[in-house]
């Protein structure tokens, strides 16, 4: 069989994709009826058409115009219609005379001093023309996709789109063997890990040189006389022709003056025109500038996801190979971009103002979300700059406390926080800063449901070993020495332990907001005692304070202990919280909220909590898990994800208990409908059983002040405190007994398991597992029977423990290093870490070398010299002991790290390169891009010159994008239900909304585009899938990182879609790129490496067998011999061996695949039958070939052996299955359910027919008696007609019987369907019993065939392809779900709702 290349891809699809690749979002419009085009002319630009929307204001249209290449870089423009200037704030749809095809004119407005500087800064951004290495110099993660897909042809200087199109067009003419052979370091088993290949040289040209010099003139500032005549500033320009010009900036624009280097003459030069745009003047005076500027404007425009700046800094741990710039910065002396603002920004006011924007319509919400995103991004960038300024010593503290210095910089309040012994010293201080940020994030997430309660803009930043907390300044909350003498109410303090008894309308409003927030966060209202003995009711932790600012907004501060304590790591967990037996007389704070009684108070519990029978700890809990125990700090809190998971777990027990109790008392339906007290008693008993805080409804809330040192409760709260202690102990035990085993089980079943520390952290946090449980995760895996299958998780967890402990040691190490020795100190630390027998050079010798380079002598080094070089005394053994000590204290790992780094490499398979990458990403260290030899046992592989920079690492609050996220989640639900058309439309809408809010530069936008590509491919549109996946790759590289695990997966998916479109060369490059990143991040021993090797075995011609055999080895090692992944690997090898004529080996591998399918699915399953057919085809072909060879004879002519070669469609289908784009049918239970349901339906019909026959017989008997009676009486219509029965009456009687029988049958069928759909249908879908916690959306998704019905686009298949083996025969040709029972209804429908015959 000869391969056939699928049409519809290749050059044409590449061209279409490149065109869409350069546009924003997906090109959709939410309101197409309001968009129209107008013609723009004037201001010296060529007329062009502009697409506008009716809901735009005029200023939006101006902003859109300024971004057009026809207008750029002009600025300070306005619009006019029919000679009348348009109001910038007027909506376009309200302007009279403005319609489609209308002409609007650009008007050049006079400059102000500020607008003139803005115009110059806008031009400077274009003239700087960032080169391909500038992103690395700034520490930002670059995008490598354009370089990877660029065709290496002599004339391939065009970036991005045209290069992609040209390389795609050359794909069909080049053979696979030209570029198909992978380099040796990418072959399975290779230990070489070159770094230079990670960031290949970009195809983009370096930034061109426009001018020799451009700076502010020495004649600045203009004298008073010239200011009165409108001179703003003077600019000096030196062109490449060697000419020197002095330029004046004024209200009308820019013009040449008569000044020279020695003579000041501000008058306009002879015959000098005034140019509104500065570049027009430069083109007029310099032909060389004009030529370069024209080339710059005519270059292909890149897409927004490539050019738009990211909101947040994504660190690149590798810098450029050459630290120096190729071209000098000729524009730095202009001073435009470095002019400090007259007043620092008020970050809190800007953020709160953006949040308070109108949000009624969709357009208003999009504008609001975009404004919030922009403000938060600017705030985070300012925090990075402020941290560098503070720690580098450019800012003086505003207080005189050396233990807790505070700084004010750029509208930010930055501090380290006090190292309180009650919290655990330095570790407790860092934990408090991290918890404050997490809790601010939790309250910020309530913004949509709870408006009126505000939090300050908050971020934490780690730089040079110091952690700073940065916040915006709230008006009126800055306290001075005089303010401390005022009452709390006078200072704006309305809520908190120190607020005192108050009563005001503002306080009642704030209490209402806090009560609503506590309900959303599952916090219980509690009462604590102040040091004076007064009762204070709280809705938060004891540290929180509620204030009203000078702007009238309510703020909540100090929320770092909002979430409940982790009882596993509380020092006094076995000691009950202190309860005061008596309190002094006095006024007690017992306010109610909005007139409600305190229903959660424990004054009258009716002994309900005494009946709470849940034990505090599981049996043998301490002996099995060595918990509870102490921790280096006292601020161990549960994550909000764990709280929600525990509440759901308790709710399942609650519902099970209620159902079980009602079943014992006469049945659920009888008790629920009888109206007696049995159902109420069952609910109360279940509430007591699960520990609900309410007696009549299920409600789980947690007291954040339990297990907090120094917090006392009144005696009336003793029962509630005891109940909360038991509840929080159960929640803590829930992590170890439920969440960690579930995490291990999910890793066993998925080949997309965590690859590095970031992905492991995300996976653990999604289940509510804190990283302090890493030691328990490692121990649980080591004690599990599946420890060999989970060795990759053990490897990542051990590496994460090692790097986190190393980072804490590094923070203490680097704080005492002088700025001039930072590079040497970091390289020395890395040498001690990576080299077992590292012997550093003497510190004094290094100091002499540095002093010689600086040209200084040895004098001047007094007593401070020994202190500044103390870092050089650190040895490798000392460093290793410190790391092991920290790992033992924090994670409870005593002997797991061994005696050195070589033990981790040999015992766990860790890579030194992967550990180096993790260290740099966590500490902000940037290394030079070069190949490091890390296996040296004596010499340090990294020198001081290889340390390029140290960047701040910022953690910040993530602002929501409500409408875009909701649309994305709705599309995901539709995808789970099998509604592909609805999911596709929802994903397109979500992509458009993400583009409007954040220019798609957001992790969630990346996931949206990736899922959009998947659904598009399943719908049969490979070109659209390729286009969306291109964006997903670029977004992932720029937002998450060029070597992030998600980027690896996105590259693999892009390779599949490119191969589906006939672009084999590009597919090979993408898959090889994914494998290179995989080897760097984790190594080869990972389940996802098997996925990449399987795909590479399909697209490569050289070394295909090597990759396929390695994939089989990995799948067998991780999943066992009876697994779908292993069976697929066996088949891929069998197919490849068939193409080479090795039918004996092919039969062996296909038999293994058949055995696996038989074991998993049974003999009657579709996959098993198709595998048998494929094995028979191999056998038949082998017999045919053998017979042909025998007939030819030993002495006969050589016969060509016909080989079974898979088609391109078959290869694509297999790659789709391997990468998880389409899932293999796990079982035939859904088909079995339909068969059983049809049998029950037939039995019900038969029963109804019997009942119908009996009724007909009875009716005939009645009619016969009536007939005899009528004949005897001689009356009735039948008598008049000679005794013949009336046809109408007979038809009416038969119709009534049929109607009754039909209704009965339908009722019976519906009842039977509901019975079957509620039980067996779910089991048929999942292969086991449906869990009680399954949500309705998930249930609908499975009932629609998500888990069992394979989706397949309509593609031509050759006879006996593997697509026939793995795709169910009942699938719909267009890719929709087929024959899926929806919500238990037995009708056979497709996903689009069309009934199937």
- The fraction of residues in strands falls at 5-15%
Number of strands: 25
Distance between the termini: 35 Å
- Gyration radius from CA atoms, angstroms: 37 Å
| Quaternary structure of the protein | single chain
How helix-rich are the residues, as a percent range? 40-55%
Largest sheet descriptor: 5 strands, mixed
Cα shape: globular
Runs in which pLDDT lies below 50 for 5 or more consecutive residues are 1-33, 151-179, 581-614, 846-866, 1271-1397
Q: How do the strands of the widest beta sheet line up side by side?
A: 2-1-5-3-4
Mean pLDDT figure = 78
Tally of contiguous helical segments: 46
Structural class: alpha+beta
Keywords: Cytoplasm
GO molecular function, one term: mRNA binding
Organism: Gouania willdenowi (Blunt-snouted clingfish)
Protein name: Clustered mitochondria protein homolog
Any overview of this molecule?
This protein has 1397 residues and is an alpha+beta fold. Helix content is 47%, strand content 8%. It has a 5-stranded mixed β-sheet, covered by helices on one side. It has a 5-stranded antiparallel β-sheet with strand order 11-12-15-14-23, with helices on both faces. Strands 6-7-8-9 form a 4-stranded antiparallel β-sheet, with no helix packed on it. Helix 32 runs antiparallel to helix 33. The radius of gyration is 37 Å and the shape is globular. Residues 1263-1287, 1305-1318 have a biased composition (Basic and acidic residues).
